[in-house]
Each structure stands twice: as structure tokens, then as C-alpha cells.
Amino acid sequence: VQSAESGGAGVQVGDSLTLPCSALGATSVGDDTAAWYRQAPGKEGEVIGTITWGAGSRHYADSMRGRFTIYKNYHEKRAWLHMNGLKPGGTAIYYCNIRRGSVVYWGQGTQVTVSS
């Protein structure tokens, strides 16, 4: 199984952007959870939120609630992070990982740059 995120881009403050994440090589994702993180330059990584592929249960970090939405398509084995109202602080590498029991599969990350 490999997590593959994409869609990173240079955007303007206030723009919206959606990042897809695919569970490559997975025959089933029913017991898996997709989690989104980001790491800004010079800062520690922070959790954005998670979604379970089976039930679609979502959890968001308090600081991310409201402007970020995570959703999924079970049959496509894909999950998305939709971001509204991006701010300069949103410049970061965004990662999606797939959690299967105690095993975590990390993607390579995708760069989002927010310019004013």
C-alpha cells in the first residue's frame, strides 16, 4: 500500500484548493483511516484531520475546524482535503497517510504555497 497525495499549487490568499490522496495498491480500505497533516517551513508538523474510509467518521484539529473539509470515496480508494480561505500560514507541505491497524503508510507530500 502506498499513500499518494497530489494537487499542491501556488495560490493567493483567500483561494480554495482541494488535495486528493489515493491508496495505491490497496485491495480494500474498509478498515483504514486517512489522515491529513501539514508541515510549514521551520515548524513542527500539525494534524489537520482524519476520516475513516468505511464509516466516513471525521475528526478535525480544533485549529483546522471550519475551513478544512475531509471527504472520501470508498470505491475509488481516494480521500480529499478541501481548504477554503487559505492564509499565508497555509504555506506548507501537506501529507496524507493511511493507517491500517498499527501500520502507517506516508505519502511524499505535496507543496502548497499561499501568496498575498
Give the helix tally: 0
pLDDT averaged over residues: 96
Strand percentage: over 45%
The residue fraction in helices comes out at: under 10%
Shape: globular
Describe this structure in words.
The structure is a single chain. With 116 residues, this protein is mostly beta strands. The chain is 0% helix and 54% strand. The protein has strands at 2-5, 10-12, 17-24, 33-39, 46-52, 58-60, 68-73, 78-83, 92-100, 103-106, 110-115. The strands form 2 sheets. Strands 2, 4, 5, 6, 9, 10 and 11 form a 7-stranded mixed β-sheet that branches. A 4-stranded antiparallel β-sheet has the order 1-3-8-7, with no helix packed on it.
Write the layout of secondary structure elements.
Blueprint: E1 2-5, E2 10-12, E3 17-24, E4 33-39, E5 46-52, E6 58-60, E7 68-73, E8 78-83, E9 92-100, E10 103-106, E11 110-115
Question: TL;DR of this structure?
Answer:
Helices cover 0% and strands 54% of the residues. It has strands at residues 2-5, 10-12, 17-24, 33-39, 46-52, 58-60, 68-73, 78-83, 92-100, 103-106, 110-115. The strands form 2 sheets. Strands 2, 4, 5, 6, 9, 10 and 11 form a 7-stranded mixed sheet that branches. A 4-stranded antiparallel sheet has the order 1-3-8-7, with no helix packed on it.
